[in-house]
Amino acid sequence: MEADLTRRTPNTVGTSSYPPPQHHRLGWEEVPASNTRPFDAKDLPGLVHFNRARQELELATTIDEVKAIRDKAEAMRVYAQQVTCSLEMQNMLAEIKLRAERKLGEMLRDSGISQRKEHNLLRGRIVRLRENSPSLEELGISKSQSSRCQLISSIGEEQFEERVSRIKESGKELTSKELVTFAKTLQRVEARAEKRNKSMERAEKVHPDERIRILHGDFREVLGEAVVPSSTVDFLLTDPPYAENYLPLWGELGAFAARVLKPGKLLASYAGNYHLLEAMNLLALHLNYVWTLAVVYPG
Q1: What share of the chain is helix, strand, coil (3-state, %, to 5)?
Q2: Who is most buried in 41, 44, 128, 268, counting CB within 10 A?
Q3: Model confidence over 172-204: pLDDT tens digits?
Q4: This prediction's pTM
């Protein structure tokens, strides 16, 4: 690489001494400086800097090499932003940085370097590191950077490419933060799907004649411990009477739900607007409030 920005001190970025006034060392190619005109992608013949960076990233085989490419791309992106280069140019540099972070995350995860002994002990597992493996600190990688890179690396290749293309086509800035947020969203969706699948597997094991059981009567009388044992219910859905004289039922409903629900599970109940506050206060004596939804009927 002709332009080694990683060897320059950070406090010189954007000052009159960086880069030399004769040239803008933006990318992997030197480009003649234009005093006031912002750079544009067409100012870099053939976008050699971009293609070369991607090629070097593909050929990189060590964490040090990948990190060096990532750091160089970020330094150039910051400088491009300071000299008001086009968003297209800034996103090209940001894309190299993101691709490097994704590869860095894969390498850190596969090597086990990012695993801490104390964390592994708490989780009851041991990660065997290669002999003389360096620590994150020795590699110049912070814990937060390691976490960010591994989150980005958790995005599937097809989803990563699609997301990057969509952001660039929308004319928005391409950032690590956006990809990290996307990765966390995918993880939540995956976790919900896994939880739902496990629930369905458990439901399949229930004997058919146990699936539906109708009990007629006052819940305070027919749903005792013998019928509904404590901490055995995943979800309660009910629609108590709305009139004021039935308000005491809400307190008893809250007590019943607190007894039968498993930890972290929910009671969902319809309620009228006139006495909503009183009903919620009575439930709050036994349960923690989560959310209020409105059901709007036509007419």
Answers
A1: 55, 5, 40
A2: 44
A3: 999 999 999 999 999 998 998 898 888 888 877
A4: 0.52
